[in-house]
Design a protein that fits this description.
With 272 residues, the chain is α+β, with helices and mostly antiparallel strands. Helix content is 54%, strand content 13%. A hairpin with a 5-residue loop joins β6 and β7.
């Protein structure tokens, strides 16, 4: 059977995608370095001096030895070696939220991490704006991302969920377009989580606070903004993890090649 090759991704989508890969990765890693300056999260305005944290990464004494402990909503978990207490340079153990290998810069440096984080945040904003403008102009958002009424029909939603649970990937005509779960996931990232990260980041900035103090109130306080910022980033990490797994399950060479060259080989059903 002759293979069918289509143009799947426009140049604007491919360029903004690969910029996002680099920028989001460094943004998350520099954000973890900033988080390590005070590895705890609160709701409200005041934080540490007034409210107990709902998430905290710390160190505790267990049987006479230090151990990493992560407390989440009152539940304590031993996370030694990963969160709270982990190996640093030359094998020395450090009291820190996230380990050095997960942060940028790798060593503890709040000032440098903040400078990189703010710079990369604006690169992300510019890149996302370009994606939205190109997507609206060439119809990509309307045609490929926005779910239709047929997509959102309960029967179609359930079928898509069942296919994903069975690791069943589309073939033929169905493989030429995003399924409803893909559309909803992409839409959640570009229309909810990324904007939430940007706005909560601005709400935490003292400079922007002087320009628009109402933004802090929108999120229920500066500490709430920090928490929502962290949750939005975590949701994006989850999306990326699932996305990468799906790429490898669907065929990494074909999927990655389509995001580099735009050429996609349509998978066909295998006849027995």
């Amino acid at each position: 059977m002759k293979r069918e090759v289509i143009r799947r991704h426009r140049l604007s989508v491919r360029i903004t995608h690969w910029i996002n890969v680099l920028v989001v990765a460094l943004l998350l890693m520099s954000g973890l370095n900033i988080f390590n300056a005070h590895p705890a999260l609160y709701w409200g305005q005041k934080g540490a001096d007034f409210d107990p944290p709902w998430l905290e990464m710390t160190v505790a004494n267990q049987a006479g030895r230090p151990a990493g402990v992560t407390r989440l909503a009152g539940v304590s978990l031993d996370t030694t070696g990963v969160l709270g207490f982990s190996p640093g340079p030359a094998g020395h153990w450090l009291v820190q939220g996230f380990p050095n290998w997960a942060t940028f810069p790798e060593h503890r440096d709040l000032a440098t991490a903040r400078r990189w984080h703010f710079f990369l945040a604006w690169v992300l904003v510019i890149n996302a704006t370009a994606y939205w403008l190109f997507g609206l102009g060439n119809g990509h958002l309307r045609r490929d991302i926005a779910p239709t009424k047929a997509d959102l029909a309960p029967r179609n939603l359930w079928r898509s969920i069942a296919d994903h649970a069975r690791l069943k990937h589309p073939v033929g005509e169905a493989a030429k377009r995003y399924n409803v779960l893909q559309k909803l996931a992409y839409l959640a990232v570009i229309a909810v989580f990324l904007p939430a990260m940007v706005l909560t980041g601005l709400a935490m900035s003292p400079g922007f606070d002087a320009f628009a103090p109402w933004l802090v109130d929108v999120f229920g306080g500066r500490q709430s903004a920090r928490t929502i910022h962290f949750i939005s980033a975590s949701a994006i990490v989850l999306f990326v993890a699932v996305h990468v797994i799906e790429v490898f399950l669907a065929g990494p060479i074909n999927e990655i090649r389509s995001m580099i060259t735009g050429r996609y080989v349509v998978p066909q059903e295998k006849h027995r």
